[in-house]
Amino acid sequence: MEILRYTAFSTDPDGGNPAGVVLDSSSLTPEEMQLIATEVGYSETAFLAPRPDGGLDMRYFSPRAEVPFCGHATIAAAVAHAERHGEGERVLQTAAGEVPVETRRGADGQLTATLTSVRPRVDPLDSADVDRLLRILGWPHTVLDGDLPPHVTYAGAQHPVIAVSDRSAMEAMSYDFASLDELTAERGWTTVNVVWRESGTTFRSRNAFPPGGVVEDPATGAAAAALGGYLRALGLVEPPVRVTVHQGHEMGRPSTLLVDVPAGTETGIAVSGNAVPMPGIG
Q1: φ, ψ at 213 (rounded to 5°)
Q2: Taking the CA atoms of the chain, what radius of gyration do you get in angstroms?
Q3: What are the mean pLDDT values of the chain's consecutive 10-residue runs (282 residues total)?
Q4: Do the Cβ atoms of 47 and 35 come closer than 8 Å?
Q5: CB 16, CB 218: distance < 8 Å
Q6: By the 8 A CB rule, do 51 and 93 touch?
Q7: Please, are residues 150 and 162 in contact by the beta-carbon 8 Å criterion?
Q8: Nearby residues of 136 by Cβ (< 8 Å), 6 or more positions away
């Protein structure tokens, strides 16, 4: 068994979000997968297993627990798989549902993967939870962007969206880890997606990730897909449209996530990005 290490949403090994990848986990138990993910230490490790129908089973483990879906580990695993088995379309069977993934090689020679999420859901965030989140983040209500109200978003995993009107507030973001860890566990949230709208279709994002055992995630594909569903549901963009999300800059691991939002409410959100091996380790 080979454990690969790729970084997703970047063509630079020093950027993006690192993920562990096991391309054939057929012989592994969930307990062994958890142990491997803990030892790898990245926010997520993806475990693939070939299916008789030509698709792939996919499971995701953070260093602390299994999660239903992870975007950056999907992109990393899809590129690693394409490098060894060829480009094209694959269907992933995840705990969140069926996720089609397409890989292709660009004119620059870089592989790009595009995942299409399960159908998004968007619900208003309870005012008590808004208050609690802002206390944990140390922000007054006045920091919120009134045009982008707080909601809980889902496109395979749950992420509250907290939009700020001041980029400097997002750049200085800090929080009480234990308090947010407790709240995310109570609500079943994966990350807390803090965003700032730079332009109509460009966003800056930071994702607090206590459930994964890390303070922050440098690129969160699942949250980007959920953000696309949020923008569509609230009429904040006019589909079909491409939204660009920049994340990880404050961590020194810049990432670019391309989010394609189709028209209609029944369709999933497409998220695209590159992935490259981490230097010297696969």
Answers
A1: 80, 15
A2: 18
A3: 96 97 98 97 96 95 95 98 97 98 95 98 98 98 98 98 96 97 97 98 97 94 98 98 98 98 95 93 50
A4: no
A5: yes
A6: yes
A7: yes
A8: 175, 176, 179, 180, 183
